[in-house]
Amino acid sequence: EKGGYASFMLKEIAEQPKAVTDTLLGRIDPEGTLHLDEVRITRGELREVDKVVIVACGTAFHAGMIAKYAIEHWTRIPCETELASEFRYRDPILDPHTLVIAISQSGETMDTLMALRHAREQGAKVLAICNTNGSTIPRESDAVLYTHAGPEVAVASTKAFLTQLVACYLVALYLGQVRGTKWGDEIRTVIRQLSEISGSVDRVLATMEPVRELARSLASHDTVLFLGRHVGYPVALEGALKLKELAYMHAEGFAAGELKHGPIALIEDGLPVVVVVPSPAGRSVLHGKIVSNIQEIRARGALTVVIAEEGDEEVVPYADHLIRIPATPTLLQPLVATVPLQVFACELATARGNEVDQPRNLAKSVTVE
Ligand code: F6R
């Protein structure tokens, strides 16, 4: 049932282009308009939403962090993303105009379930983004948008994450469409770009051999750091989480802008630092800032592993290892930038002799608080 792959994780990584396509299927019409009629919250209610709160755990939380950038940009509705386990214990401010989005692959995560129950008690509407039909979280929500990743067997989430991102983008774009924000043209363009993105994921998968080789060469290291900015920051956190749970290594993700506020003290000779680079100048003002960060850490001895878009030549002189991803619209870049990090963690774990589908101490679905 692993279909010729050495692990479910490798199989599920490879299934990502299809998972992304399946999650978009039937939701975009040929004119590029979104149809999310399955979301049983009326257009009138969606127009009255004045705050979005996203709750989730682990990898799903990282999808939620990325969703915040997309929702605020395309809808101009304030959005916060919070760990489900923190949310309900701090007496959050919610009312009937708050839309709470609960993201969960399994639909059974107790922390997320408790957060959504708390939100509904306060009168907020809850939309679940979930991969498991008929599970508890969608059953207890006002509405659900299913991801169509298919069953995810490996404990570490991969294809579910990419489809959670797709679902988050769909919700953000749909809110923008329904509310008619000034970004109307951009929204139509992005819907089209989203419908073509699985080809880019495919291309990334086809170029992963150097990433595997690099991972094997780092198997005896103790620590790997990850840096990113904007939507690349949650990608860095996700890369670090994958490495912790699979390779049992010390891995940490930072917002690159925070480097000088502390983490740069960690940089020493030979320390591998993976940097997720935003789209090149012209499209993202952050690009130049990240290039400076790469120079700074390299000057202090870091072994730089740079994930950058094709055509980005500025990073080349400072990259000890360069991982290319296709040029992608800024907000959608996590769909392609995460894939090499999954492959990296999977290969490093294997090189260290770990069982990738069943990492120690972890369970696929966490049904206790
Ligand atoms: C990491 C991972 C976990 C889950 C988290 C939430 O690879 O799989 O961090 O993402 O336990 O699980 P769900 O999405 O089922 O609520």
TrEMBL record:
Subcellular location: Cytoplasm
Reaction equations catalysed: D-fructose 6-phosphate + L-glutamine = D-glucosamine 6-phosphate + L-glutamate
Location of the active site: 364
UniProt keyword terms in alphabetical order: Aminotransferase, Cytoplasm, Glutamine amidotransferase, Repeat, Transferase
Gene Ontology MF: a single term: glutamine-fructose-6-phosphate transaminase (isomerizing) activity
EC supergroup of this enzyme: transferase
Entry EC number(s): 2.6.1.16
Chief subcellular location: cytoplasm
Physiological role: Catalyzes the first step in hexosamine metabolism, converting fructose-6P into glucosamine-6P using glutamine as a nitrogen source.
Name assigned to this protein: Glutamine--fructose-6-phosphate aminotransferase [isomerizing]
Taxonomic placement: Bacteria, Bacillati, Actinomycetota, Actinomycetes, Kitasatosporales
Residues of the full protein shown: 247 to 615 of 615
